[in-house]
Amino acid sequence: MSLNRRTFLQMSALLSGGLALNLYDLPVAVAQSGRPAPPDISPRAFVHIASDGTITIMAKNPEIGQGVKTMLPMIIADELDVAWSTVHVQQAELDESLYGAQFAGGSMATPLNWDPLRRVGAACRQVLITAAAKRWNVPESECTTSLNKVLHGTSKRSLSYGELAADAAKLTPPPLASVKLKDPKDYHIIGKSHTGVDTRSISTGKPLFGIDFTTPGMLQAVIQKCPVFGGKVKSFNQAEIEKLPGVRHVLVLAGSLSTDPVVSSDPGMEPGIAIVADTWWQAQSARSKLKVDWDFGPGVTQSSEAIAKRAAELFQAPPANTIHATGNVDAALHSAAKTVEATYTYPFIAHATLEPMDTTASWKDGKIEIWTTSQAPGNGRKMVAKELNISPDDITIHLTRTGGGFGRRLANEYMVEAAYLTKQVGAPVKILWSREDDFTHDDYRPGGFHAFKAGLDAHGKLTAWRQHFITYGVDAHYASGAGMGGNEFPSGRIADYGLYSTAMPLYLRTGPLRAPGSNTLAFVGQSFLDEVAHAAGRDPVEFQLELLRSTDGKPNRLHDVLAKVAERSNWAKRSTTPGRGMGIACYASHLGFFAEVADVTVDAKNQIKVNHVWVVGDIGRQVINPAAADNMVYGSIVDGLSQMAQEITLDQGRVQQTNFPDHPVLHMRQTPVIDSYFLITDNPPTGLGEPALPPILPAVANAVFAATGKRIRTLPLARSGFSFA
Amino acid sequence: MPPQKLTINNTVHTVDADPDTPLLWILRDILDLKGTKYGCGVGYCGACTILIAGEPARACQTLLSDVGTDPVTTIEGLSTDGTHPVQVAWQEVDVPQCGYCQAGQIMAATALLASNPHPTDADIDAHMSSNICRCGTYTRIREAIHHAAASTSTK
Ligand code: FES
Ligand code: FES
Known about the structure:
By secondary structure, chain A is α+β, with helices and mostly antiparallel strands. Helices cover 30% and strands 23% of the residues of chain A. Chain A has a seven-stranded mixed sheet, with helices on both faces.
């Protein structure tokens, strides 16, 4: 357990914006933790074999669309040596003492589970061999397995796993560290495409999701929160609301927000008015009749315009913090043959999972049972225990399938809301946020501002890089998702480098959104690098390959994916027709290394059509479920493109975008042809939830420059005068 | 308002609810047909797409009082065992990521194929662009629609 917990804690710190580590540093951090020691998890908890031969494998982590409910059991099944068609996958409850860390975040399912779950499968297989050897009274070394059977070679006997199940159940599995793992060439499940275990149920509309859960006597609730974050209820027409059809309870939530020194991504329950009714529509209809007098609190003075104005002022002042500096960047810029300067900006955006926040909770005799869509249910359990002042042991948490996470469900306040309400009203309660609640009370991906200055020598070689990041927080205590680490490229690649920050206060929830940090830092860094390459009169690929070239003889993974994507996209022979262009970018995040090329057409009205995208990724030596991996790549590209057009703005503390039409997701007709390719390298397998996303934003922006000569330095596209066709 | 009769997936149900209730919430919370999903509630996302008299409709924008005697088909009405050609295609291509939008996508695709059994990519894009997939499975949705078109034409 120790490694899992420790790494999980590091991840949590990272995801919640503690940012002890730069996201870019994560590969190093994991490498430093040494070879993954098999954690203290019980193999038996994962595998159940019935006497009729049915194999049940538990899926430990929350399934949010990233495919872990299929992929993690595949790993076990292969080492267990069973036919995948005989496997029934079951979603595990939250029990981290049995299963190890159970969360969906940071693209960590593969790196954290690849080794332990193979060992779980192998240990269970070993127990079956031991049981068979005993039955036959032969040495274990003479026994082998083949698809749900133990075989004794010399006597040609065989016993099915089902026949051995009862005996095997009496044996103690061997220590995970001791088991022998398969030679990868013998994999028969890993590395082959397998359909999602829930795909059939999804296609027939089975009730799989949190929103679908129901239990007898269940009431449904909505919570009206203040339009300004953290605002409190002064008074409202309670008597009137209580009389509306179906309404059972109307409660004022005082909330339990903690906001020092900055607002965290999951600060607890926001104040508001809960309406609990027989059906959700009744609760939602009653809400529309509310007349509330709010105490808006400190957030009401905030606006996007004022924030942008303040950032412009801060750029004129010396930076408050040094994140990382080497050499003497100012002197190097002074003596450079040529300098390039630009300022980049990106907005706050929302997660907007298609299934809004929801959870059902049922309080009975001092204990609580919860059915939730959380990505980090272990943290949720702690929050519920604290809010209700009960022991975590009195909380049972079931994980439902989840209609999208993207980091939003690393926060658990909706779980706390459901738990609080069921205890208050004494009946099971489903809390379901409306889409408008979801947009206006998100933990937003924070916006940011970057001023760059780079120096080139007479040969067009990069010699100096200065970057001033204006962000949110208090001193060097950044708002969640609003920090950056010192290893940001080209740090370490040039002698004279300076990365500085200045934080301004913010009274709003921010948090991690898919590829946190990276989804903005790739855009600004890789776009500016493209500018510098053009200023140097050099090809952007050749310019960046030179910077990335390995100096220690070991392959540089980012260099290699960049070279590969240039080759696959036929970069060297790209067309130079006006109005059409190709752009390239690369980025390493969440242990994955990705390079992408976009081919775009831009019309006279500055409408961008993304025609084709080439993706080359290095996620190590094994792609576990290839078809699902491609699907994650497609999704990352669509998500990244969507991000380019999205924006959340504040006016008098109120979020102005309330539904999808104001904050669009890419449509099918806007989706390019996507070529997904994995470069296999001799490195441990890593995850795909995130790393394919960051490079697409700068690749498209750079392509637009190639097509039009115009730089997109401000997102969303509309603020640079562009849109998607 | 007296209880209303609704024909859903060839079964007649009698529903006693406020006539202004969107059909989406009648399906989900009264009739326990949870396949049809809530995404935006404003007719934009398509997660609640159903067929009314064979035409695609937004259940979140259709009031109970508007349905009348027209037959309603939801995802559960295509087949419960996943054997409808569009459902089969969705499984063969393994379209879903989170899966939340997919009932709406499948219903929209079913309507498209009913009126245009052999759609081109452009036809598919035009028809399907009013259903959003937050996870970005469009590439696979397009592929699955072609699959379904091919499988029905060979039957
Ligand atoms: S929920 Fe009906 S269109 Fe979005
Ligand atoms: S599969 Fe998640 S919204 Fe479409």
